[in-house]
Amino acid sequence: MPKSKKKVATTQRPMVVDTYTLLHDSVALGIVQGWNRAHKHTDTPDADTVQAAIETAVMDRITEYFSFPEVES
To answer: How many domains are contained in the chain?
Structure first.
């Protein structure tokens, strides 16, 4: 006769991600990276270059941790 398996009581809690902190850190680091990227080849980038570099870097950081399903229109 096979031995029956006993259920072991566990006190472990499921891991919970602090989404706010993860998103905040991604945005903060993306801003710094974007600013540095905009200034990589010039000391005086124009506002559009700075904005585009920051936006790209922030979205790159966010999409490292979050995925977005494609929205069909």
So the answer is: 1
